[in-house]
Amino acid sequence: MKKWINSLLIATVSLGLTAGLARGQGRAAEKDELESRAQTVNALADKHGGMKEAMHDVSVETGVPLELLQKMRDQHPDAGAAGIMIACVIADNAKGSPEAYLSRHINGKGWAAIARDNKVPLDKINGRLDKLEHDLGARAAGRGDLPATGRDRNRN
Q: Does 129 map to a domain?
């Protein structure tokens, strides 16, 4: 009977440790994925169009005034368009200040952890990054200079 209880106790502890490790690996993968996405979008912004156009896209997508985004960019010159976008999305969902979330990231906390702490779904952030990436890619492909009607500017 004693051996059976010890075996049961060991099995329970093993399962608990395994579940904890699996959850930790899942969080690490989320962090790596979000950080990788941000780097990809930032590289695209640097390569095609520059930060001015990217900041305009972030402003349009998030509703945050361009002046505030520029102020954030001036205070944190290493923050890319994707980081500023992520900070704004988290702030919108958590009802906080985008500057506070950007500062947390600059000070070493990962975007996935910040989002998780504020109960912001990563799918929402990835969706906004998808849109920003699409807008930057469209501009790079020459489709970003059409007016809202979709008509070519040189036609009447």
A: yes
| Counted domains in the chain | 1
Q: Per-residue pLDDT tens for 72-105?
A: 999 988 889 999 999 999 999 999 999 999 999 9
Read off the pTM. Answer: 0.70
Angle at 146 between CA 46 and CA 57, to 5 degrees: 40
Burial level of 4, CB count in 10 A (0-12/13-18/19+)?
A: exposed
Q: Is 23 inside any structural domain?
A: no
Enter the DSSP assignment of 77. T
Residue 119 located in a structural domain: yes
Write the CB contacts of 106 (distance below 8 Å, at least 6 apart in sequence).
76, 78, 79
**Structural domain of 71:** 28-140
**Cα separation of 96 and 8, whole Å?**
47
